[in-house]
Specification:
The protein has 415 residues and is α/β, with parallel strands linked by helices. The chain is built from 15 helices and ten strands.
């Protein structure tokens, strides 16, 4: 066989292998499920901002409020729950009702999870009845089906009340026990970024924009091959297990000699409730043009190691022709939630019951005087009449002094 033909066949085989690799990457399927009204709104925004075809990402919204489902765009799959209980309306912030409806619709939930996606992302704004009630049930069923899951939840604003925050925290605790990892974004942190004059919807979009940017970075990491490649197995290793908190962030900036500010922004996403130092698994990918250097990769890796010295680090490097003089990095980190000590309940101190003490144990002043006399100390004793007279003299003197100060100053001086 001619040498040229052998070389040509070799190139064809290499192309086939590369094509298989590409196809295996493209076969990764992700389903994003928005639960409740808040979760549905987040999904709606993500479907607009994520730059991936619907064949790779399946967007779903579940809700008891049929009207809220109708106003969502047609590219989202809408699934109604509990029409017999709510007559197509919302749960009225009744968490127990939401949980009851979800538990009664177990078959429907299993059907949502039956399409064997590689990753299921559950998104909900906690504090209401549907999202807060549904999430524990969805997460429990997902674990029973042995699915790979990531939960992304927002917490209510402080002004919405302690009851809603307490219900939200309880839902997160239940979800963490079943989902692989949970990412928490408190709404209250929006105030650190949003201007005072910004409308309420605009403030909420701060979280949606940041979440979309971070998910886009993660999807880029999965779907685009790199010089140092990160595949789905790497991401699965990073989030496997249960009872984990997650950190996800993507930052893009101009390439400069000093990347300290860039790494600080990358590892300090203030919209996420997370202590990066507790990370046990860290995956990060860097995208850039041809001038992207290994030194930049090493700098970011060193900073991650400083903040989370015990973490297992997986890194990737991708050349992106669109990023000529820019660098973009995505970090996904997880760490097991440590068992917090039970908080001391702030209760009003109860008055201690008075102990009944026998008269024999009561030590009187008379006993002290006797002890002093026994030690040879001379005590000037007075009887009851003398003590009473002394008290009357003291009161009389005090009254006389008060009378003096009631007299005008100039008369007092004359006197």
């Amino acid at each position: 066989m001619p040498k040229k033909k052998i070389l040509k066949n070799k190139k064809v085989e290499e192309k086939k292998v590369n094509k298989l690799k590409d196809n295996s990457t493209k076969r990764i399927k992700i389903k994003i499920i928005g639960i409740g009204g808040g979760g549905g709104n987040i999904i709606k925004e993500l479907s607009k901002k994520l730059d991936f075809p619907s064949t790779k990402i399946d967007f779903n919204v579940v809700n008891t409020d049929v009207q809220a489902l109708h106003v969502l765009p047609d590219n989202l799959k809408k699934i109604s729950f509990g029409e017999g209980e709510t007559k197509g309306l919302g749960t009225g912030r009744d968490v127990l009702l939401g949980k009851k409806i979800a538990e009664a619709e177990e078959k429907k939930i299993k059907n949502i999870f039956s399409d064997q996606k590689d990753l299921y992302i559950l998104i909900a704004s906690l504090g209401g009845g549907t999202g807060t009630g549904f999430i524990p049930v969805f997460s429990k069923i997902a674990k029973e089906l042995n699915l790979t899951t990531l939960g992304i939840f927002t917490l209510p604003f402080d002004f919405e009340g302690k009851d809603r925050m307490r219900d939200s925290q309880k839902a997160i605790e239940e979800a963490q026990a079943n989902l692989n990892a949970v990412l928490v974004m408190p709404n209250e942190r929006i105030f650190k970024f949003a201007e005072e004059s910004i409308p309420f919807n605009g403030a909420l979009n701060v979280i949606n924009d940041q979440l979309a940017k971070s998910l886009q970075g993660l999807l880029n990491t999965v779907y685009f091959s790199g010089l140092i490649n990160i595949d789905w197995a790497d991401i699965k290793i990073t989030i496997e297990g249960v009872n984990q908190r997650a950190y996800l962030n993507t930052v893009q900036a101009k390439i400069t000699d000093d990347l300290s500010a860039f790494t600080k922004d990358l590892l300090n996403n203030q919209l996420i409730s997370y202590n990066f130092s507790e990370s046990t698994n860290v995956l990060f990918n860097i995208e850039g043009g041809k001038n992207l250097s290994m030194q930049q990769l090493a700098l970011i890796s060193e900073k991650i190691h400083e903040l989370a010295p015990d973490a297992r680090i997986i890194f990737g490097l991708t050349q992106n022709s669109k990023l000529k003089n820019e660098i973009r990095a995505t970090v996904l980190a997880t760490g097991e939630v440590k068992k917090e000590e039970k908080k001391k309940q702030k209760l009003k101190p109860k008055s201690k019951p008075k102990k009944e003490v026998s008269k024999k144990k009561i030590k009187t002043i008379e006993d002290d005087l006797k002890e002093l006399e026994e030690l040879g100390v001379e005590i000037n004793r007075r009887n009851a009449i003398e003590i009473k007279k002394a008290e009357e003299d003291a009161i009389k003197k005090e009254n006389e002094e008060e009378d003096i100060f009631e007299i005008p100053t100039f008369l007092r001086k004359k006197k």
